[in-house]
Design a protein that fits this description.
This protein has 134 residues and is α+β, with helices and mostly antiparallel strands. The protein is 25% helix and 43% strand.
Amino acid sequence: MVKSVDSVPVRTYEVFDAFRRAFETGHTADFLKKVTEGFRFFVPLPLEGWSHEQQGKKRFEELILFERSVLQVQLTPHILIENEDNGMVVFHAEGSLNGRPYRNELAVVFEFEGERIRSFREYVGLPLKNYETP
């Protein structure tokens, strides 16, 4: 089945593309240009200091630095859904985590304020026990 370009949720696709580049390359500038002043996020890392909601651009940069130190992945979006206030992407991550093969299916939900990202919350398909030191 082929989807027309007009039916693709463009705002969510553009935001996810910047999100993907941050995790794959460490380049956060494009993503951070899209966030609001009070930007916050939640990524369910099983590590002290990350198990609750985070806030701010600097903290997002710290997340990317940490993630890139242990996780090298390619993110492939599969489902994009958008309404007036939210965008959701179900995606596949494949690469390595702490030097071991890593594959997972995840979802991220972006909360929008106009065209900007107020927050995001990530949901993980498989347990992330490999984040612990091997």
